[in-house]
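Changelog-adjacent note: as of this version, every example in the card shows the full chain rather than a window. The one below runs 107 residues end to end.
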Amino acid sequence: MPTISEVFENMAKKMTETPDRVAGINAVYQFNITGDTGAEYYVNLKDGAKEVAKGAYPGANCTVTMSTEDFLAIIDGSLNAQMAFLQGKVKIGGDMGLAMKLGKILG
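Full-length structure tokens:
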């Protein structure tokens, strides 16, 4: 199973290799992954940027909070993101419309 940092490194690589996957998303996503191996990362897609970095981004448009276990399960496909949200395992702050586009970023 990948680490949190490996997931975000892979995410950055995919966005660079296939920029069409995030075309039209003009926002910053903040990911707060909790737990012993958790971390904060942000994905900046404003004004054509494709930046993935560790840390917090003040004023992010959409904030996603979940445990390390649930995050990795969503990434490997063993947990459905929509079901996780409905079960309260994923918390979304900010623009819910942007949350609906998370599949393009995480996929």
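Structural remarks: The two ends are 16 Å apart (CA to CA).
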